[in-house]
Amino acid sequence: MKFLRRLFRVLIALFILVNIVAAFHAYKFTHFYTDKNEVTKRPENLSALDKAKVIFFGINFPKSTDDIQPDSAFETVYLTTKNNLKLQGWYFINTKNKGTVILFHGHGSSKSALLHESGYMHSIGYNVFLIDFRAHGASEGNVCTIGYRESEDVKLAYDFIKQKGEKNIILWGISLGASTIIKAMHDYDDVKPNKLILEMPFGSLIQAVKGRMRTLNLPEQPFSTLLTFWGGVEQGFWAFNYNPCEYAKQITCPVLLQWGAKDNRVTKSEIDCIYNNLSSTNKKLVIYESAHHESLYKMEHEKWRQSISNFLSE
What we know:
Blueprint: H1 2-29, E1 32-33, H2 48-57, E2 61-62, E3 75-80, E4 86-92, E5 100-104, H3 115-123, E6 127-131, H4 151-162, E7 169-174, H5 176-187, E8 195-199, H6 205-215, H7 223-235, H8 244-247, E9 255-260, H9 268-277, E10 283-288, H10 296-299, H11 301-313
Parallel strand pairs: 1-2, 5-6, 5-7, 7-8, 8-9, 9-10
Antiparallel strand pairs: 3-4, 4-6
């Protein structure tokens, strides 16, 4: 009996320790640091003590910046969230005015990373609007909820363009940006774009965390479940209900869904789930055979341009 009691105590202690570690990692995954002294060094530059801290307390990620500035005329726009965070956007006007494409970046990225994609949209006659999600780029804040609250950012950008009298609004998003667009259309009935272009959206929040584990060469379970749970608890929502695949059922407008066949973060089953659940009668799935979870524009430039051009001209 003494052995069983000791074993039970050890298991309880391990359970508590694993949950504490998961809570720290979940916190670091949703927070970015503007102070460079707070950012974790490259692994090869860490001491043994520093490595131990990373294992137990997670990695400090730097807040992204807009490192590249546009080389054409634009208007800097500021939008304000309900909790008074200022979001910065760049608005490019095109005299041809075929419509307006609003572009949303991925986790840990920024609007400047989309200048190639937005530049092509602009070159074929569209106004373009780029926006930094909260806690990214030049927008305020340090907390990212992986799209849960960022759906408000999508609505703010959509309303900004709608209020200009635009009749043809296209939403484009990559990774986090794509999944957040889907959630915004679930959360807000008045977010009704004419077309959607979704690149590599994750199917659910727990699947996004599993993808994160795969990129770090860590076991998907039990870490994914624990990180999802604690991330939601820390941010004040039930993370297991965050499900873009389910939300896709409400989408009826034309959709172009794109994915890289070598993507280790978002699986084909997630893409298939979203595609099959789309209620749109005009939907298309394009797969890029040489692409990982990255810019499809950069990996298969001509194919991307043709795919976008064909979809927008339909």
